[in-house]
Design goal:
Elements (H helix, E strand, L loop, with lengths): L3 H4 L3 E6 L4 H16 L7 E6 L6 H14 L10
Parallel strand pairs: 1-2
């Protein structure tokens, strides 16, 4: 049985100021929680723009740190 999320068109979320305070404190942890709960569309892409020039690896660590600071627990697999 297909769910509504699996049948929707591709979704793109564009975040302006992806390295900013609002993104670090609210958007990134919220997206992680929704992902862990299986509540994001299967075909979701997130595109971020910022004035800071981060490499891909530095940005990935930035996101991990943001989630860890908000109690998201990227490293933990149990809920």
């Amino acid at each position: 049985m297909e769910t509504l999320l699996s049948t929707v068109a591709p979704t793109i979320l564009v975040v302006f100021g992806v390295t900013g305070d609002l993104t670090i404190k609210k958007i990134i942890p919220s997206l992680w929680l929704l992902f862990r709960q299986g509540r994001l569309p299967e075909r979701l892409s997130v595109i971020g723009f910022a004035r800071r020039d981060f490499s891909e690896d530095v940005f990935r660590q930035f996101v991990r740190d943001a989630v860890d600071k908000r109690g998201g627990g990227i490293g933990s697999e149990d809920d």
